[in-house]
Specification:
Layout (H helix, E strand, L loop, with lengths): L2 H24 L1 H41 L3 H24 L14 H15 L7 H10 L1 H8 L7 H23 L15 H42 L4
Helix pairs in contact: 1-2, 2-3, 2-4, 4-6, 4-7, 5-8, 6-8, 7-8
Length: 241
């Protein structure tokens, strides 16, 4: 490699790092990070609420029992200790990280499945090669619309089942298997002349296409239902004067 080539390579690498920083601050990654923070805040908020309710409940019960039967100092201290222990357990269990894909319960609502998938992509993004990250960002950019359509669909709906399998099994499995490949082997070409990194990008792109098709089919249902309702109202009341 000549000195000029080395300078060009360094300049391109520097440019890529700068664009990555900009994208993470202002692009889809920033939006995804905000969604992740909001999910954490809601989780901690629920955990705090449950802990406070437990403290209030035990305090009220202690007062009621104390009015009926004196419990003494040791009884009071035991009640305080019990309240703190229960509140601590409720906060710990309520604020812990949600089950990661693909081990989530298969009966969770469609909207929550999309949220878990979004969180999974956010946590795994940095571990993926640079060419794969823009494809991942394209997937996450479409999750808001997908969530809106899936939330109105039954769990057993065929399109919902396709999306759920892709989000909870197939795509996480692809990323997990990629992570298992030693870095030294990821640049080696296979029998078809493609590297592991290239296969990953292709798999992510195929997943994005599949999710987009599901989202489009679900949205088309809503459009068709709206058009049908509009034609019905027009035919029934449009001629009335």
């Amino acid at each position: 490699m000549t000195e000029t080539d080395a300078k060009v390579t360094k300049a391109l690498a520097r440019f890529e790092r700068v664009m990555t920083v900009i994208d993470e601050r202002e692009g889809p990654v920033a939006m995804q990070a905000r969604r992740e923070r909001q999910r954490k805040l809601r989780r901690y908020g629920r955990a705090t609420r449950n802990a406070v309710l437990a403290l209030l409940t035990i305090s009220i019960l202690t007062i009621v029992v104390g009015v009926v039967t004196p419990i003494g100092m040791f009884g009071f201290l035991a009640a305080v200790g019990l309240a703190i222990a229960i509140a601590g357990l409720l906060f710990f269990w309520g604020s812990r990280e949600e089950t990661t894909l693909p081990t989530v319960p298969q009966d969770i609502p469609n909207g929550e499945m999309v949220q878990r998938f979004d969180s999974f992509l956010y946590r795994t993004r940095r571990a993926l090669p640079a060419p794969a990250q823009p494809v991942l960002d394209q997937i996450t950019a479409e999750l808001t619309t997908l969530k809106q359509t899936l939330e109105r669909v039954d769990l057993l709906d065929p399109d919902a089942q396709d999306a759920r399998r892709l989000m909870s099994v197939h795509l996480p499995g692809l990323i997990d298997r990629y992570a298992n490949v030693p870095p030294a082997y990821r640049s080696e070409a296979d029998a078809e002349g493609k590297t592991v990194d290239q296969r990953l990008v292709e798999g992510l792109a195929a997943s994005r296409t599949a999710l987009s098709e599901v989202s489009e089919r679900l949205a088309k249902r809503d459009v068709d239902a709206f058009s049908t309702q509009g034609r019905f109202i027009e035919s029934k009341y449009g001629q009335a004067e």
